[in-house]
Amino acid sequence: MRRAFFSVFFLFFLVVICIFLAASALVASDEVTGVLEVSFRFERQSGPGSNQFAVWVEDSEGRCVRTLYATGFTATGGWENRPEAVKLWVERSRLPEMTASQVDAITGATPATGDLKYEWDLTDAEGKPVAAGAYTLFVEGSLRSEKRVLYSVPFEVGMSARDLEVGTEYFGDDCPERAMLSSVKARYTTR
Which of 3, 95, 107, 187 is most buried by its number of CB atoms within 10 A? Predict the structure, then answer.
């Protein structure tokens, strides 16, 4: 009798383990993997009120999912002294609510002139994978005082690999500082 009980218990245990492994495989196969790459040319400008930019991703509801990079001056308090500095990112990222360690994780010194590249691994600010669906990548730059540029790249997490169309919108009059950010390209790849 005791042997029969252990045999039934052992079989039950094996069935539970098999169900768990099968369910885990199904969940893992639903996870979307890939990378969104954005690259652009950055030309440092002289004078105050320029050289500030941010790169971030929003979901279809306009919520900031993750900031990939923001220049340190703006993110660490410069936005309070210069409210026109990457003001859309400041608003959408909810920067005033971030802790110092959260800000530190997304910022860096203003880079030297050159070609820059940032990648998004399809995870949110907490490192959790995002759901398949519509997202938009933004690159916002403060060109000079209130003059700025906003590049936008709509895409679908889960789509096939491809180069993406980049939209450009300038705010303020034409100025020589428009050369600060140029040649913006984006590509979605799957893994």
Answer: 95
pLDDT in tens, 71-122: 999 899 888 888 889 999 999 999 989 999 999 989 999 899 999 999 999 9
C-alpha neighbours within 13 Å on the C-beta side of residue 179? 7
The 8-class DSSP code of residue 112 comes to P
Contact 33, 87 (CB under 8 A): no
Residue pair 157/98 in contact by the 8 Å Cβ criterion: no
On whether the pTM is more than 0.85, the answer is no
Q: What is the pLDDT of residue 4?
A: 56
The domain locations on the chain are: 1-30, 32-190
User: What is the percent of the chain with per-residue pLDDT over 70, rounded to a whole number?
Assistant: 84
Distance separating alpha carbons of residues 60 and 72, to the nearest angstrom: 27
Task: Record the tokens describing residue 95, joined without a space.
Answer: 């920067």
Q: Which fold has domain 32-190?
A: Immunoglobulin-like (2.60.40)
What's the rounded Cα separation, in Å, for the pair 163 and 40? 14
- CA–CA separation, 137 and 13 (whole Å): 47
